Amino acid sequence: METVIVGAGFAGVSTAYHLARRGAKGILVLDKEAAAGMQASGRNAGLLRQSSEDPEIATFLQRGARAARRALRGIPGSMLNTGSLILGGGIRRLRSGPRARVLEASGIVKGLEGRGLYDPDDGVIDPQALLGVFLKGARGRGVEFGFGERVTGIRTSRGRIEGVETTRRKIATRTLVVAAGAWAGDVAALAGSTGIAIEPRRRHLFRGAVDRPEGRSWPFVWNEEKGVYFRPEGDGMLLSPCDSEPHGAAEPEVDPKRRDELARKVADVFGVLGEWRLGPGWACLRTFAKDERFVIGPDPGVKGLFWVGALGGHGMTSAWAVGRLAAQAILGRRAGGPFDPRRFGR
Prior knowledge:
Blueprint: E1 3-6, H1 10-21, E2 27-31, H2 40-43, E3 47-48, H3 55-72, E4 79-80, E5 84-87, E6 101-104, E7 115-119, E8 123-125, H4 127-140, E9 144-147, E10 151-157, E11 160-166, E12 170-172, E13 176-178, H5 184-190, E14 198-210, E15 220-223, E16 228-233, E17 236-240, E18 245-246, H6 256-269, E19 276-289, E20 295-298, E21 305-309, H7 315-330
Parallel strand pairs: 1-2, 1-13, 2-9, 5-15, 13-21
Antiparallel strand pairs: 3-8, 4-8, 5-7, 6-7, 10-11, 11-12, 14-17, 14-18, 14-19, 15-16, 16-17, 20-21
Helix pairs in contact: 1-4, 1-7, 3-7
């Protein structure tokens, strides 16, 4: 194969899609799971959020959001234009979409106090629907997929990628793309890469409800200062305590203490909106580099090894822009800029 990509979440599938769009052939995407998007890409809250304190990340979020809206336009029920309301003392440091503005929060959600950053172009999307668009586009351009295949070894010669071994086969390739999310560090280490530290962090999501019938028309509301958010989901809500606990690259279990933490935060921040009830939840792993910027481009020490990861929970919104930059870097048409892995040295 010309290119083997490890990981069939947003990072890996979008990279394959953009490579194929540019005429690349012989692309194979491997994933240890039985289907695409089984980890963080399919377990996130589906928030299409364009704002970030990091201007480079904000640019990618805005590009990705525009592409996501175009891609999902013809898929019924895949996107809700709810808007977003970001609260907290740091809202003026956020780089956001072109129509975002700071206003009184009570004008958007009656009962909330203070001022918030409101972006009418943010919303909620179905992560699997968006991932499906990339999958369909990649397959239609000849990309192959190998599900249920865990990478067990990587062959190198004189510091260059030569091939990949999985639980099923041996594959010759000179280009290996690590897009394995929380498992990216483990995969890269098989190739002898040691210069980039990727830290998985666990985050919880819980279902809930509040006794406000108009809640279904609210935007998603995120208090960054207090670390808590909610978004409408059907007749109820989806909420997170915004926890970010370091966690090994393993299936994350739900910590019941996080539900208690969420209950305290909701009562403190959103108690003015009514009586809240919390239900069951789940956890996923987001990944970060030490400077909390994306890692996209060639490994600083192993030739033929490329990184697409450390997206810090922004993988869904930024997917189109991330895959585009990754494809350009792999094809040698553009460096990774501020996201280049070589910023960390060898």
